[in-house]
Fold these 2 entries.
Entry 1:
Amino acid sequence: MNRRVFTATALSSLLFGRAAHAAFEVTRTDAEWRAMLNDLEYKVMRREGTERAFTSPLDREKRAGLFHCRGCDLALYDAAHKFDSGTGWPSFWQALPDAIETKDDRSLFGLRTECHCRRCGSHLGHIFDDGPKPTGKRHCINGVSLVFKPA
């Protein structure tokens, strides 16, 4: 790898949280992502932004079903694992098997665990250690990253 390619890849990783050439099953160009997502969805899913608390209707969703990735339609969370965390974002105590990947996020004055869709890399939210039993985890997820499909 030459210096220019290495520098561009390292800069992309610093700015966007993952290398530009990350190997995901579903890949799209930036133009394709922008065409399929609205401004907020793009900011959250592709630039690791956060929607405002208490703005997602999915935070209040109570029906049985599955929450899918808006970017690639992979099933991520079962409604049976959802709970009301009071934080203003849809919260789950676990993801479906092989649905998400995680990485360290040092963007806000400390260390957090960021989670993203394992198939397309879309940013979902963060995982905290203050959730209910049986896992003790709280997957705090941006509703704009999800699509709910009732059972």
Note: Confidence is low (pLDDT under 50) at residues 1-21.
Entry 2:
Amino acid sequence: MRRYSLFAVGLWVLLLFSAPVGAQTAIALGHTEVGTASFYHDRFHGRTTANGERFDQGAYSAAHRTLPFGTMVRVTRVDTGSSVVVTINDRGPFKKGRIVDLSRRAARDLAMVDQGLAKVKVEVLSLPLREV
């Protein structure tokens, strides 16, 4: 019996620590984060995003490090209260302190193109039925 218990504990530990790096934790509707938003440089227009789509500066899309692809979020500029709804279709931003990278259209609607950065609140509105 003791051998089985050690085996079960060992298997549990192996499974626990073998999760892929960046594995998702459960995200609920209404989950929010506050931090700095940036937006994509024009040179990324037309390139392939992490989920396989072509990036379009004119679309309402964004990159987030961990939210599942297809998640719809409301991004609200903290100082003005203006907001946009975007769909997560890429990974990033990879610069320390930033929580979301927006398409130029979304950044323009938040009036942050001239500054390049803005403090925002990101709120999960809907999750995909399955991660793509």
Note: The mean pLDDT is 83.
